[in-house]
Here is the input.
Amino acid sequence: MTDTAGEAAEALRGRMTGPVITPDDRSYDDARRLWNGDADGRPAVIACCMSRDDVAAAVDVAQANGLEISVRGGAHSFSGASAGDDGLMIHLGAMNGVAVDPQHYRARVGGGATWADVDAATQAHGLAVTGGLVGHTGVGGLTLGGGMGWLANRHGYTVDNLESAEVVLADGRIVRASESDHPDLFWALRGGGGNFGVVTEFEFRLHPVGPDRSSGRRMTSTPPPRSTGWRDRPHRRRRPHPPRRDRMADPAGGLAIDNLVSVEIFVADGRILRASETEHPDLFWAVRGEAATSVWSPSSSSGSTTSGRSSTSGCCSGARTRPVTRCG
Here is the structure.
């Protein structure tokens, strides 16, 4: 650890309520570890913040000592940007509180929360907001990146449901950005780029959902044994329900595949077919999400599937996750 980093660590210990971790501490590797195992950033100092004042102190000390800041929320940063080398990591893991106002359909969520934290609090009131596909995704990174999730077709992206955000600015000021307060900053947080500050709290608009558990895109009311949350139930493809025309008129637009009306396909026996909800519906279903290990069989009048290799496959099948130990 350099003299500058050592001075920054000592200064932080005198100003923060949360722990300050350096490479010599036994908890250092757990505190810096990210979900993406290929990311191996080694910050010089880790500030485990317990409050917005801790975050403001960390920003001030980092600037005074010329240390580059990285911010770790839920630790899902695929690029590894949450753990920079030789700088100061602001660790928000302990700031994971969720306060729900069911009467006004609002929730205030700490910058270090995961979607499992949000679901546990909101589903107690039969409410939800578009969040991650799995519960261990961080709220901060997903929201500021747009936020695609299971409820996007009906309620828009996560960022579309953001009502306000508490932000620690580069000069140490703490502001709340919304449509009426600091509107330019609020616009910037919702797609204008990065490095505008550290978001310590999000306020979301909630919607009546559940309390349910999901299986793929279908909602069921019976939870599986020992389920940890509806986002974490294994997702299985099923036969489609009758056509969901309401999706086509959804203001949020939905996924590109949800707006597919028909598709022309060259099949294995040389025929050219047009598949839709009314013509070759099983083939139409298959190209909209059938598992990568199945292929439509043109020789079967029922359009059944047989084992083989498909030209359309899921992009995230077999994804593995690793646990993250939070500091604080």
User: Anything to note?
Assistant: The chain has three domains: 3-91, 98-208, 260-328. Residues 98-208 form a domain with the Uridine Diphospho-n-acetylenolpyruvylglucosamine Reductase; domain 3 fold (CATH 3.30.465.10). The first strand starts at residue 20 and ends at 21.
